[in-house]
Design goal:
Chain lengths: 219, 219
DNA sequence: GCCGGTCTATATCGCCGATATAGAACCTAT
DNA sequence: ATAGGTTCTATATCGGCGATATAGACCGGC
């Protein structure tokens, strides 16, 4: 496997197109029918291939899903780009929290596949994502504003944002639930100290009340 | 359906025994083979019945799993009893956090079934459990020590303990990871204010730094 | 002794993931 | 160009799954 032919040629190109068609069909089925609706046979119909083709290219269904998850992580990463994050490292982490939750809320099926796999072997793409989070936390540490070891703080932060996102996906919360900001600011104020410059606001009410109108949604 | 016979009689007793045998077999299979290993046919072999019997008693597999989940919630509740919780309402909540995480860590498969169901319709038993949590939070509010509305605080607290437990189950953490206490104390110190009596310790460093040498574990 | 309701078994359906087998398309070397 | 090896794809099938149609066994009440 993977013997790199000197020239891929039209044959390999067609093969790659088949591979792509299978992945696209899988992602479409995943979005439209959910995880349970993702069957090899339906993928075959949608992609215009037969089962052995899928097994030849991906090995088994789990490996195919792994590739789909890779694509999901690419889209996940994209949710953090294309917007200018705050410069302040703590605010950047808060920004990351919101982007993370936003992705989970708008891609529930994908999120479950990425972070709630029953046989939780972390994908390389997942580890890369976690590493990006660790770097954001380390930037806070570099600024002398982290109150816990980087590893512990990273893990605790992730557990917080994952907990929020999980409950959001389960339909227990709405996206504007005050508990979200509550949980987010709890972990942030526990892990970090305010910057020296922003002393003027000093110890503003520990909970973030700045946003204007998130006050109408009851339970 | 549901016409209550005047006297259940020995027949109904045998039926109830069959029902119990099916549930016991399902729980044993669940514990030994995991969620995926839980098949109607295997349950039949273990319980000594045939598939139509299961469908007669439970309707379909999802309903059977619902009954199993009910039993899990009973065991879950038991994890909070039999031990004398602290009297201080905040400390009682901290105690509940630890019991919750402990149950999740020692019953990973069951926890996933209870709280990570893909088709997340909350079981009545699950709602009852959440209500118990809400009462613990309300007790803090009654003591005048809650810093957020009861509903929001309850939800935020649950998201925190659920996030920790999920990551613990996924094998990402060990049970002694400092991040657990970090996340726990973060949400507690954000949601509550210290009691008037314990003023002597006042505003101890927001983060818990007491542990001595947790600085050797790099990446 | 028969009868209506409750409970269980036999046999089967359609779908699933996976694969053994074989053939088609392509590249390389002669 | 052509023979040989490699890569890719299709036909047909296996065993297992959830679910059910059908029918028989058991029991209480008339």
């Amino acid at each position: 496997m993977g013997a790199p032919s000197p020239t891929p040629g039209p044959r390999a190109a067609g093969s790659e197109a088949t591979r792509r068609a299978i992945l696209d069909a899988a992602e479409e089925l995943l979005a439209s029918r959910g995880e349970d609706g993702l069957s090899i046979r339906e993928i075959c119909v949608l992609a215009g291939v037969t089962p052995p083709t899928i097994y030849h290219h991906f090995g088994d269904k789990a490996a195919l899903v792994d590739r789909v998850v890779d694509d999901c992580f690419a889209a996940f990463d994209r949710a953090f780009e294309g917007r200018t994050p705050p410069v302040d490292p703590v605010e950047r982490l808060r920004f990351g929290f919101d982007r993370y939750v936003e992705y989970g809320a708008t891609h529930a099926v994908h999120y479950r596949l990425m972070f709630q796999r029953p046989h939780g072997r972390p994908t390389p793409a997942g580890l890369a994502s976690y590493d990006r989070l660790r770097r954001m936390v380390r930037a806070i540490d570099d600024a002398g504003r982290l109150l816990a070891p980087v590893e512990d703080a990273t893990a605790a932060f992730w557990s917080s944002v994952h907990g929020v996102t999980s409950l959001l996906i389960s339909g227990f919360w709405t996206r504007e639930a005050p508990a979200i900001a509550l949980a987010r600011d709890a972990i942030l104020s526990q892990l970090t100290r305010p910057s020296a410059k922003s002393k003027k606001v000093k110890q503003q009410k520990p909970m973030q009340r700045k946003t204007k109108g998130e006050r109408h949604g009851g339970t």
